[in-house]
Amino acid sequence: MKISVIVPVYNVERYLCDCIDSLLDQGLNSSEYEIICVNDGSKDNSLQILNEYAVKHNNVFVIDKENEGVSSAWNAGLDIAKGEYIAFCDSDDAIRNDALKNP
User: Fold this and answer.
1) Nearest to 72 by CA among 4, 3, 6
2) Which long-range contacts (CB under 8 A, 24 or more apart) does 76-79 make?
3) pTM attached to this predicted model
4) What's the CA angle centered on 99, arms 85 and 74, to 5 degrees?
5) Rounded to whole angstroms, how far apart are CA atoms 88 and 83?
């Protein structure tokens, strides 16, 4: 595994699909990177959206935990990350295509 991308998620259902879609559109084989989404106690439909992506994509993983803040979410993602490199992406952001190709 080359890259682990950790995405802390809290009540961002409005932006979440754009974020995850941008991470999936990297021109990399799914075996080269993983997307670890950490739901930090969202009260909206964020968890449901994440679970739908995880079912469809073998490199999307979901951690669901109580709300403890963004640094706790980052640490939860780091605990399971398998990548040689670590990247972080805010759940209300999108990254450009191929941004992860040359870390």
Assistant:
1) 6
2) 76/38, 77/4, 77/6, 77/7, 77/8, 77/36, 77/38, 78/6
3) 0.96
4) 45
5) 12
Task: Spell out the residues 6+ positions from residue 57 whose beta carbon is closer than 8 angstroms to its own.
Answer: 24, 30, 35
SS3 content of the chain, % helix, strand, coil (to 5): 35, 25, 40
The conformation of residue 6, written as its DSSP 8-state character, comes to E
Show the tokens assigned to 79: 């605990």
Would you write out the chain's pLDDT as a tens digit for each of its 103 residues? 999 999 999 999 999 999 999 999 999 999 999 999 999 999 999 999 999 999 999 999 999 999 999 999 999 999 999 999 999 999 999 999 999 987 5
Tokens of 13: 């259902």
